[in-house]
Design a protein that fits this description.
By secondary structure, the protein is an alpha/beta fold. The protein has two domains: about 10-255 and about 465-480, Glycogen Phosphorylase B (Rossmann fold, 3-Layer(aba) Sandwich); about 275-460, Rossmann fold. Helix content is about 35%, strand content about 20%. The strands form three sheets. The chain has a nine-stranded mixed sheet with strand order 3-4-5-2-1-6-7-10-11, sandwiched between helices. Strand 12, helix 9 (about 315-325) and strand 13 form a beta-alpha-beta unit. It starts with 11 loop residues before the first strand and ends with a helix. It comes from Parapedobacter pyrenivorans.
Length: about 475
């Protein structure tokens, strides 16, 4: 085995991911990979993030060293690669980008017709680099199906035999997406022990997520509730999750309190803490309401997220129509999101139909998201599937009460106000009727100013930082390496 390229006794953890905030972010995966390694580094570990190179503002704004150049074959296609390391360690951990012309040189992480080849090249390129460079980490931590082939290749390809004793951790952020590919793609993989082909297969296709679960030393999910749900709702992998449950653990995500902190957030109109939360939120609400033509004297309900079925975004138009059909309801709504074109079109129509009541921004803007969390009184998440959910954690950090469907991580992190020490509003079914009833409960709560103020302060004191979750990952790394 090659000698470890580590200069001290700190455990060396390499995270592999398609996303990492603020380099490239599409959803919660990017937030997690942008935060967890920083907390690991602060705890004394040596944490790296390795991801594809994207033509993004962050990459253009920072300096990188080329630390490796090489080439390999993907099938019969020769690929040239280079590895770039961010010079200043600005993210608080080592950031490495793999650049491959034609595959890992794109504007965005997803949405390409050759996505299978794209992420296959990422994984092959990573293994080729660290093997050639003699880098032997203590743990390789793979995130979602985009890195799902890594453990299989480490353990069953002679080309990467130097890595066969390195333990691997797999984290399932969203089990609905699995990276399926036809078996005719197998020729593009590095040579592997063909007797082990069954580890790649699920239902007669190469399934990278299934391979990840089968081959990783351990796998985690981003909440305990989501781990249980995967046993019965995993888009065809239910049996596999049950078979492998002995090596599983649910660890709820945290939030980066250096980024999400209303007391220090430079994106807000006015900063505030728990002691002056009401005044601070009113100032931010006034600015947002003025910008989008809303009435700042009314309670503000927000939705932030993708317009996707799993998020329950298709329920939003019916929810809004039902609420505004009741002329006695005093409420403003602000929506930030994009995705399903039908939902986008309908939401744009509703914003025109209800001027002064509904504000909408199609797309995603980080600064606006922060300002909405600070301004809103309530955040709604009618999710059908929510492995962990970060939006509800951000909202509570800013004193905004979450209204959530009780599923996955939402069930783990939001307790209804009817419970002792409860601090949110939950509902059971992913339906407009249940969501509307929950909103009426929220409006009733809003009229109780004293109770509302007490809950806001209670929310802001809950510790959802990465500290506790990072400790659980550190214990996991120590367990599998010892």
């Amino acid at each position: 085995m090659a000698k470890k390229n580590v200069n001290d006794s700190a455990q060396h953890i390499i995270h592999l991911s398609a996303e990492c905030y603020p380099v490239a972010k599409v959803g919660g995966l990017g937030d997690v990979v942008g935060a967890l390694p920083k907390y690991l580094q602060q705890a004394g570990l040596r944490a790296w993030v390795v991801m594809p190179w994207y033509n993004k503002p962050f990459v253009k704004a920072h300096d990188f060293d080329v630390i490796y150049t090489g080439s390999f074959l993907q099938g019969s296609r020769p690929l040239e690669m280079k590895v770039l390391k961010e010079k200043s360690n600005v993210l608080g951990f080592g950031l490495y980008l793999i650049h491959i012309p034609g595959l890992l040189d794109r504007e965005d992480p997803y949405g390409y017709s050759d996505e299978s080849e794209q992420f296959m090249a990422f994984q092959h390129g990573f293994l080729h680099w660290i093997t050639q460079a003699g880098i032997i980490p203590d743990v390789v931590h793979c995130h979602d199906h985009h890195t799902g082939l890594i453990p299989f290749l480490m353990y069953h390809s002679e080309r990467f035999a130097a890595l066969k004793d390195v333990p691997t951790v797999a984290t399932v952020h969203n089990g609905q997406y699995q990276g399926w590919m036809d078996w005719n793609k197998a020729i593009l993989l590095p040579a592997f022990d063909t007797w082990k082909w069954g580890l790649l297969d699920w239902d007669k296709t190469i399934n990278p997520l299934a391979a990840l679960i089968k081959c990783a030393t351990v796998f985690t999910t981003v909440s305990e509730g989501y781990l249980q749900e995967l046993m019965t709702q995993a888009n065809g992998l239910e049996q596999l999750f049950n078979m492998e449950r002995a090596k599983s653990i649910g660890i709820v995500n945290g939030i980066d309190t250096a980024v999400w902190n209303p007391e220090q957030d430079t994106m807000l109109i006015q900063n505030y803490r728990a002691s002056d939360v009401q005044a601070g939120k009113m100032r931010n609400k006034a600015y947002l309401s003025d910008t989008y033509g809303l009435d700042a004297s009314k309670p503000l309900l927000a939705y932030i997220g993708r317009f996707a079925g799993e998020k329950g975004a298709d329920l939003l138009p019916e929810i809004i129509e039902n609420i505004f059909a009741d002329n006695t309801v005093q409420l403003s709504v602000m929506v930030l999101g994009s995705g399903d074109l039908q939902v986008q079109t309908t939401m744009t129509y509703l914003a025109e139909k209800y001027p002064g009541k509904l504000g909408i921004y199609i797309g995603y803007q980080e600064e606006l998201a922060h300002r909405i969390y600070a301004a809103a009184d309530f955040l709604i998440m009618p999710s059908r599937v929510e492995p962990c959910g970060l939006n509800q954690l951000y909202s509570m950090q800013y004193g905004t009460l979450p209204i959530v469907r009780s599923t996955g991580g939402l069930k783990d992190t939001v307790h209804d106000i009817s419970e002792p020490d409860g601090y949110g509003i939950t509902f059971v079914h992913a339906s407009a009727a249940d969501a509307v009833f929950a909103i009426y409960r929220a409006l009733e709560l809003y009229r109780n100013k004293q109770r509302m103020q007490q809950l806001r302060k209670q929310l802001m004191k809950i510790d959802f930082s990465w500290d506790k979750s990072a400790d659980k990952y550190i214990a996991l790394y120590q367990n599998i390496t010892e």
